[in-house]
Amino acid sequence: MPVLTSVLDTQGEAYRANRAAQLRLLDRLAEQLELAAAGGGERYAARHRDRGRLLVRERIELLVDPDSPFLELSSLAAWGTEFTVGASVVTGIGVVSGVECVIIGHDPTVRGGAMNPYSLRKTLRALEIARLNRLPVVNLVESGGADLPTQADLFVPAGRIFHELTALSAAAVPTVALVFGNSTAGGAYVPGMCDYAVLVDLQAKVFLGGPPLVKMATGEVADDEELGGAEMHSRVSGLADHFAADEYDAIRIGRMIMSQLNWRKLGPAPDLHPAPPRYDPEEILGLVPPDAKVPFDPREILARTVDGSEFGEYKPRYGTALVCGWARIHGYPVGVLANHRGVLFSEESKKASEFILLANQTDTPLVFLQNTTGYMVGTSYEQGGIVKDGAKMINAVANSTVPHLTINMASSYGAGNYGMSGRSYDPRLMFAWPGAKLAVMGAAQLAGVMSIVGRASAASSGREFDEAADAKRTAAIEAQIESESDSFYVTARLYDDGIIDPRDTRTVLGMGLSAVHSTTVAGRRGFGVFRM
Ligand code: COA
Known about the structure:
Helices cover 42% and strands 17% of the residues. The protein has helices at 13-38, 42-50, 56-63, 117-133, 151-170, 189-193, 211-218, 224-228, 230-237, 247-259, 284-287, 298-302, 346-361, 379-383, 386-399, 416-419, 443-460, 467-485, 487-492, 505-516, and strands at residues 71-73, 89-96, 99-106, 137-143, 175-183, 196-200, 242-244, 312-314, 322-329, 332-339, 343-344, 366-372, 374-375, 404-413, 429-432, 437-439. Helix 16 links the parallel strand 14 (404-413) and strand 15. The protein binds coenzyme A (COA).
């Protein structure tokens, strides 16, 4: 396989400036990740500990195999909203007793672990990742159920959690509930729907209605333990498969359950001794300009990402604004599509379509590295059939059945987001770098379009056009779109699975590839490869 060579000048001014800007973005990220990790903050964490309980991240750390990595997902869910950043739940992919699985842990220090509309989306996305990739699920349960003031936005869609859990079970994907605390009302269906339920003595409360509700409904006087304690559910109702003496015991039992699953991944195994890249991933920070409009060569990123920096480029002289080619990442074969100079023309669209079909023929997962301003506009391009060519690419992406992993490196605008396997095209995992932008178009362009439309509307109805008001409106729209294009705004709304440090790209892709190989890796069959 040919080896990529780098022309990066690590001593140059551009390198230093890029690196400084990226480090500033990473500081901003670290600050928010710290807030997310702090959950409900010092006071609620102390109260939780005083009750003799472990924090959610401690539970996860004890659950996963010693020294194994945990790929946290949607860490900044709910950022910038009225809710606590992280959305009162921690989700991610980890390894428990050698089994790669999705872990969903409530954070009881944030409003009692109650689920708001962002926690719901985050939980559903974690369950979707489990379903698409055939990953077992371990729930660490301690939640006040629905966030009551926002129940109208979540009560109906929250039913989907139980639907997803049982669909996993129907697909023979094991589900486990370790119940550390409150799991009442609808929450009772988490252990109810899981294949395995473990309840912690004197902490777990699993009932449809607590003592006050029962009193109101039937007049019966009953206490928590009789209604839903671990002892009762282990001896009487049979809901608990395992009685845990304490939290550590529950985690031990959870690890034991996973070790007894006889779990086998269905995808092919990777090379066991992949060569690291020949260039230092640290240098990625000096490669990426803070201004998304300044292009950079994705081969420089690949030289710092793929095994041995080896890359077999596909059609290198055709459709050169999109780099396509074959490589391996942590021993897994991949096809890569990476934008180079932003715009997608007809040639790039056709090249991408053929490449995606080829990857499907060989059951090869695809990695999309986005840095696109979308498909080319203009008379000659429209007359040349850019709509049809873009549609070919979007069609190929939508109907491709090999796993897709997508990273927004710098920009993801317009239908380029769709063609490059954005969120609505079901990438198995999708991440963004901290400086990445995502929107229907650039803020200045969008504001300019609105201004032109306003001017034309005034002219057609014979109104005088107020230039001063237009300038004010244009500036306001531009500022609004700029803030909505920000990677934090995008990740807060679960339009990706998290923001990553660009230096971790190889590691994150490696963990993602490992996760997607839990299920079979099979391309679409039925047509041959259309030459376009
Ligand atoms: N929705 C919104 N806020 C909630 C909440 C919920 N379901 N449950 C708890 N909170 C809030 C509390 O108002 C409190 O806020 P504050 O600190 O600003 O006053 C904070 O979360 C912590 O709650 P607190 O009751 O002090 O914590 P706890 O650890 O002692 O008890 C629960 C936790 C979950 C057992 C208890 O809060 C509770 O029973 N909540 C209601 C559960 C419920 O009926 N849910 C609906 C089921 S669908």
